[in-house]
Amino acid sequence: MTFKLESAGIDSAGALELVLLTGVSGSGKSVALAALEDAGYFCVDNLPPELLLDLVAVEQKHKARKVAVAMDARSATGLPGIPADLKTLQAQGIKLIAIYLETTTDALVRRFSETRRAHPLLTGDAKIQNPTRVLMEAIALERELLKDLRDKAHVIDTSQTSAAGLRTQIKQLIEVDNPESGLQLMFESFAFKQGIPMDADFVFDVRMLPNPHYEPTLRALTGLDQGVIDYLRAQPAVDQMRAQISEFLLQWLPSMARDHRAYVTVAIGCTGGQHRSVYLAQTLCTQFAKEWSTQVRHRELEKKANA
């Protein structure tokens, strides 16, 4: 989440940019931090929360412009003080972006099993009778410890995202123009058969719409191809769905912006995540870009591209 600069008289031009990166262990924080480092950020991993203000002060003294800090549940005792510290930094004119990486429990269990790494909240003192159950309990505890930070952050679901895909998302997020200026909209297409994105604020089901998959000449194409675009534009039900989603968002986005929400992810799902959801996500992104800062992501297409 971007913390908006509310203090009168603060000029954010040239201010230090601070990215706070957190999330569950195994969700890809190392990949995200590497992407930030490649983008020119001075990166610190596993920073104790108590040192955040001191680190920022030192980097300001050194005239640093971009700093990224990763924190996790291993520093649980200091996490409750982070919201107050962020408000302090906000009052100083620091540009703040908080990113939380989320992943399904099944995906985390699989990753820890494949890498044979121990979860950071597990200790080797006791004999583990049921490793999977104990791991799931550690993951649940970690989510509980980090829930306050999650509520204040832009959430990225990495359950089905490759390392390359995550790097792309991080790059897109930090490159949004004037992130402190208002609410940022992410339109995300997905396939219901692959699961609902965990980072979604709103989910719209468009599986009842006419499906280009059943048109032999369109089956291999996507919602980004002109043939599919022309087909879906000609369907009254598709335009009705677009108009109703648009009306809903136009009704509630201003209220969310007034409530200091910085990011809203609108997920649109169809059966395969290839035609209808892609077309609608792309169309809505273009429509809302006239008044809002928008991004678009096509989850299933990204997976194919990075396979």
| Number of alpha- plus pi-helical segments | 10
User: What proportion strand?
Assistant: 15-25%
Give the strand order of the largest sheet, numbering strands 1, 2, ... along the chain. 2-3-1-4-5
Give the class from helix and strand content and strand pairing: alpha/beta
What is the topology?
Layout (H helix, E strand, L loop, with lengths): L16 E7 L5 H10 L3 E3 L7 H10 L4 E5 L11 H10 L3 E8 L2 H11 L15 H21 L2 E4 L5 H12 L9 E8 L10 E4 L20 H8 L2 H23 L4 E8 L5 H13 L4 E6 H8 L1
Parallel strand pairs: 1-3, 1-4, 2-3, 4-5, 6-8, 6-9, 7-8
Helix pairs in contact: 1-6
What does this structure look like?
It is a single chain. By secondary structure, this protein is an alpha/beta fold. It has helices spanning 29-38, 52-61, 82-91, 105-115, 131-151, 163-174, 226-233, 236-258, 276-288, 299-306; strands at residues 17-23, 42-44, 66-70, 95-102, 154-157, 184-191, 202-205, 263-270, 293-298. The chain has a 5-stranded parallel β-sheet with strand order 2-3-1-4-5, sandwiched between helices. A 4-stranded parallel β-sheet has the order 7-8-6-9, sandwiched between helices. Strand 2, helix 2 and strand 3 form a beta-alpha-beta unit. Helix 1 packs across helix 6 (163-174). The longest helix has 23 residues, at 236-258. The radius of gyration is 21 Å and the shape is globular.
Give a short synopsis of this structure.
With 307 residues, the chain is α/β, with parallel strands linked by helices.
Sum up the structure in keywords.
single chain, five-stranded parallel beta sheet, disordered N terminus, 10 helices, 307 residues, alpha/beta, 41% helix
